Amino acid sequence: MTVKIGVIGAGALGYHHTRILRDVPGAELIGFHDANAERAAKVSSELGVKSFDSLEAMLDQVKAVSVVVPSPSWRTISYINGTRNRARSSIRSNSCFDFF
Predict the structure, then answer these.
(1) Which helix (H) or strand (E) holds 79?
(2) Domain that holds residue 69
(3) Is residue 13 scored above 80 in pLDDT?
(4) β-strands 96-99, 64-68: how paired?
(5) How far is CA 22 from the centre of its chain?
(6) Which residues does 82 contact at the CB level (< 8 Å), separation at least 6?
């Protein structure tokens, strides 16, 4: 079974999540979203991965996300877990969450 996945955040760690998820068996990387359009364009070009202009557009196409954002951006996590009603989440580290 292949899971369609996206990445939220393309900073230093998000870049590597995006890079690695391209080749993870069982995962189909749909793309990523970053609030900084300039950074998103750079990462998209370097990795050959689709950058979504909006979080909502990406979430409409995935079943799971890797959220890699700094602590002040955790309101994004509340948005995903609350309004998108994801069934469960697991904390991987202080700044990286997966929602399924």
Answers:
(1) helix 75-83
(2) 3-99
(3) yes
(4) antiparallel
(5) 12
(6) none
**pTM recorded for the entire structure:** 0.77
Place of tokens 């990523």: 32
> What is the rounded CA–CA span in Å between residue 45 and residue 79?
28
Q: Which residue has the tokens 């890079």?
A: 19
What value does the mean pLDDT take over residues 73-85?
A: 60
Least confident of 26-30, 61-65, 95-99: 95-99
Q: Residue 28 belongs to a domain with what CATH number?
A: 3.40.50.720
> What tokens appear for 4 in the block?
């369609």
* Residue 4: closest CA among 47, 76, 61: 61
Q: What single string gives the DSSP state of each residue in 16-55?
A: HHHHHHTT-TTEEEEEEE-S-HHHHHHHHHHHT--EESSH
Count the domains in the chain: 1
